[in-house]
Amino acid sequence: MKENYDLAKWLAGEMTEIELNDFKKTPEFYIYYKIADYSSQLKTPPFEENQLYKNILENNKTNIIPLYRNWFFKIAAIVVLFLSITFVMRNFITETQSATSGKRTTFTLPDNSEVVLNAESQIDYKKWNWSENRKLTLKGEAFFKVAKGKRFEVTTLLGKVTVLGTQFDVKARKNRFEITCFTGKVKVNYKHKEIILTPGKSVTFENELQINSKVSLTKPDWLDNKIAFNRDSLMFIVDEIQRQYDVSIDIRTNHPDDLFTGKIPTDNLDIALEIIATAYHFKTMKVTPNKIILEEK
């Protein structure tokens, strides 16, 4: 609502100098300015009231003809401008979907492809010409159920995933790039490598290593409130617990690189901590509801 109010004040020339300077710093100002500039070049034809009145008398007509002044066309131009700006905002501006710590976000793309964002993840994309250019940028982890159509591309800082119509999971966190294909085919580009994944196949790139594996699931464990770990370090596991529960964990151990294989729930913090404490022989201390200490016994 504030954006619409600022836009109306700017169009009416009612902004103060301070308000105008602040408005010019917004990312949308350039688009507003260009549309307004183009609209200002549209000119309405001159309206000759006297000539029209003379013609009426000469033709001896008795009908009453309302005379509309140029203000009508100005209002129409403003309406067109507003609709144009709305169209641009909805289609050309980058759309962002995100999930904060301890949360998930589910949404639908313009082609009805379904996306579920895991905690601390974000996706950016543009609606304009989406059916012909299905590209988005991912930070974090997401599960995709892609509608059939043209090429669907997911770009991350670590690599790129390309599909047509399929279901797959992409994780790009720190230096780990992990992709799992559940249906269809997935093409993975990582640095100079290109790999094709078929259903039940998974690949992980981390610290210049490539690990290929098989899965028997039809969707990621985290959609069922579980996280599966396979020979992962304690620090990696704790990072994921902090992300899923939005807590801070202080680890006091001399063996932070010890590996763990197993599953941890994402909907019960006490059980998750108990599993880690049992596996690593920790004692758990809750300083506050969101501050936890794990210390060797």
TrEMBL record:
One of its Pfam families is: FecR_C
**FecR protein domain location, by residue?**
99-187
* Ranges annotated as spanning the membrane: 71-93
Alphabetically list the UniProt keywords. Membrane, Transmembrane, Transmembrane helix
Q: Which domain of life is it from?
A: Bacteria
| Protein FecR C-terminal domain: residues covered | 227-293
The UniProt entry, under InterPro entries, shows:
FecR, FecR_C, Ferrdict_sens_TM
Q: Name one GO molecular function term.
A: sigma factor antagonist activity
Question: Would you tell me the protein name for this molecule?
Answer: DUF4974 domain-containing protein
Taxonomically, what lineage is the organism? Answer: Bacteria, Pseudomonadati, Bacteroidota, Flavobacteriia, Flavobacteriales
